[in-house]
Write a structure and sequence with these properties.
Radius of gyration: 20 Å
Shape: elongated
Distance between the termini: 13 Å
Number of domains: 2
Number of helices: 11
Structural class: mainly alpha
């Protein structure tokens, strides 16, 4: 997306008696901490200029970095470091006066989505799904981010399967009615693009849940002419 800011994850080395260990209440820790950096501060880092890494950078960095830690580990990632990152999530939540971990993850993902795009917020929500697997709100937001990612890059069509699985895991009583309609809609669109049988999906998810005229019109048009549509055409803003 043209209006989003570039970002990067910076894994900062942390020595046992370093200022960074003291600042973030982990005296004696030796390892690496992930900081999510964007905008002017990323430009400054790339120019080798000094940047003050803040708690916000660390909070976003941990939620993004845990996905990297679990799915694309680097040579410096140690299993003991993961416990430190989870501990720091609690420390930061207390510092930001956030009592509910689910709300924290949703709010951080929303902030990252607004500034850096759905590709970045999707990673944070993937971490959230692993940390709070019972959260239907996280899965609902994740489905929307996944569709946005596919819309921007159709090489990511393999994510259709994840969308379908997530729809099946959501408790619709726990999410907003509009979100319920959209995730059911995306699930159906994913199935059609994959060529899956939708016979059972329609009465289970679409007929009882989807009422928005735009969604119903899109579904009818897609069913009639599936080859005329791309994921971007069907994205709901």
């Amino acid at each position: 997306m043209a209006d989003t800011e570039r970002y990067s994850i910076v894994w900062q080395e942390c020595g046992a008696n370093s200022r960074i260990a003291e600042r973030f209440f982990i005296p004696g820790y030796e390892g690496y901490l992930p900081f999510f950096v964007w905008g002017d501060e990323l430009d400054a880092l790339e120019k080798k200029e000094k940047v003050e890494l803040r708690e916000e950078h660390l909070l976003k960095g941990i939620l993004y970095g845990l996905y990297e830690f679990d799915h694309h580990p680097k040579y410096w990632h140690q299993e003991t470091d993961r416990r430190t990152l989870l501990y720091l999530l609690d420390v930061l939540a207390n510092g930001f006066r956030i009592d509910d971990p689910e709300t924290m993850i949703l709010d951080v993902a929303s902030s990252v989505r607004e500034k850096n795009g759905s590709g970045a917020s999707r990673i944070i929500l993937e971490t959230g799904k692993d940390l709070i697997p019972q959260s239907s709100k996280i899965k609902s937001d994740l489905i929307c981010d996944l569709w946005a990612v596919i819309s921007e890059n159709e090489k990511e069509r393999g994510l259709f399967r994840e969308i379908i699985k997530l729809v099946e895991q959501i408790n619709f009583l726990e999410i907003h009615s509009n979100a319920k309609e959209v995730v059911c809609y995306y699930g159906l669109c994913a199935m059609i693009f994959l060529g899956n049988d939708i016979t059972d999906y329609l009465p289970k998810y679409i007929y009882p849940n989807v009422a928005m005229p735009q969604l119903k019109n899109n579904i009818m048009a897609l069913l009639e002419n599936p080859d005329d549509f791309s994921p971007a055409n069907l994205k709901i803003s």
